[in-house]
Specification:
By secondary structure, the chain is an all-alpha fold. The chain has twelve helices and no strands. Helix 2 runs antiparallel to helix 3 and helix 6 runs antiparallel to helix 7. It is elongated and about 60 Å long. It starts with a helix and ends with a helix.
């Protein structure tokens, strides 16, 4: 996936990163009450505060939500720490404050929560609330990726492809892209499609059928942005036309 396509691919991924973060955060917000109630038996009071805070958050009553979440977060509830971080990040019920968002996200990530670990990696990569640190971004992406978060697996693939915080390795990049693509991540599906379309010297043979398969996956992926869907649909059309032309020549 080198050559001229690399320039286009990097530019697209830079644009898409911000879209993906927003969608990723929205997805998480709708799942918070299910994901983060893991310590209810150990922290009954904190869990109740979190549950009440999450309900208030979902109803848009952010001021009350922040008050409840702060109490639970200070008691060590990972879910409350994560959601409180999102409140500070988005300026919901509290003044926008990336430093506080980073502080609480790191608290949740250090407790082993894979969703918070993914968000922390993004914060380190973009320098949100903390100086940019690609090595630590890759570290937290890996922690989440090993716990099965497809979004993090895609980011690990990007880190290995472009040498972001790690030594570049196209083999490792492909391995992580495959994991994330099979789990439905549209960014990884697009990366894998491009890899098959262009091929990688001594690592991956060019395979238009495989490229078509993955471009079609992106084009039909409900989570993919319109920009990425558009690129994928264009490639699907090109590949099908090329295949038709080749058959006519034969």
């Amino acid at each position: 996936m080198r050559g001229n396509h690399l320039i286009v691919f990097v530019c697209v991924e830079k644009m898409m990163l911000f879209y993906t973060i927003k969608r990723f955060s929205n997805d998480l917000q709708s799942r918070n009450s299910k994901i983060f109630a893991r310590k209810e038996q150990e922290q009954p009071q904190a869990a109740k505060l979190f549950y009440d805070g999450a309900k208030r958050y979902e109803k848009g009553d952010y001021t009350v939500a922040v008050r409840l979440l702060k109490q639970a977060a200070k008691d060590g509830h990972a879910g409350a720490q994560f959601l409180l971080s999102e409140c500070f990040y988005n300026g919901q019920g509290v003044k926008e404050n990336f430093k506080q968002a980073f502080y609480w996200m790191k608290k949740a990530a250090e407790q082993g929560d894979e969703i918070a670990q993914t968000r922390l990696g993004i914060m380190y990569e973009l320098g949100e609330g903390v100086p940019k640190n690609f090595r630590l971004a890759a570290y937290w992406y890996k922690k989440a990726a090993k716990q099965g978060v497809a979004h993090a697996q895609w980011h690990v693939g990007l880190c290995y492809e472009y040498g972001i915080g790690v030594d570049p390795s196209e083999r490792k990049a492909l391995s992580w892209y495959r994991k994330a693509a099979l789990a439905g991540n549209e960014g990884a599906q697009y990366a894998l499609a491009a890899a098959y379309y262009f091929g990688i010297d001594s690592i991956l043979k060019r395979n238009e059928n495989a490229a078509l398969f993955w471009y079609e996956k992106v084009a039909g992926n409900e989570d993919a942005s319109e920009i990425r869907k558009g690129f994928a649909a264009s490639m699907v059309q090109t590949l099908k036309e090329d295949g038709h032309t080749a058959r006519k020549k034969i």
